[in-house]
Amino acid sequence: MTPEEDLVRIAKKLDKMVSRNSTEGALDLLKELRSLKMTLKLLQETRIGMSVNSIRKHCTDEEVISLAKLLIKDWKRLLGTQINGLDSRKKSSGSNSLSPETQGRLVFLL
């Protein structure tokens, strides 16, 4: 299974948990997510951040909430480093990188 397929599978399971109001097993899925190498492209294509944030909002288990928050923070940091890297390349090369509007859309994905 490709990383993208793994993320889509996990996202579907998390979304199903939220819709059924049963977050049993969410901790295992979040731990699995923690072990996967995340890229900005995977975050955008799979929208996994939306599923993790949703489970965070609907869960009452403090451990699940903490791990979900940690994942989201890590992914936002990843987004920040990618944007900062593009900004420094833009300054040195004079080329356009991400517009503020695009940056806002990327942050929304998380």
Structural class call reads: mainly alpha
What's the CATH class, please? Mainly Alpha
Number of beta strands: 0
Query: How much helicity do the residues have?
Result: over 70%
Subcellular location: Nucleus
Protein name: TFIIS N-terminal domain-containing protein
InterPro entries: TFIIS/CRSP70_N_sub, TFIIS/LEDGF_dom_sf, TFIIS_N
Pfam families: Med26
Overview of the structural elements:
This protein has helices spanning 3-20, 26-35, 40-46, 48-58, 62-93, 100-109. The chain has one domain: Up-down Bundle (Transcription Elongation Factor S-II, Chain A), CATH 1.20.930. The chain has 110 residues and is mainly alpha-helical. Helix 1 (3-20) packs antiparallel against helix 2 (26-35) and helix 1 (3-20) runs parallel beside helix 4. The model has no long low-confidence stretch (mean pLDDT 85). 80% of the residues lie in helices and 0% in strands.
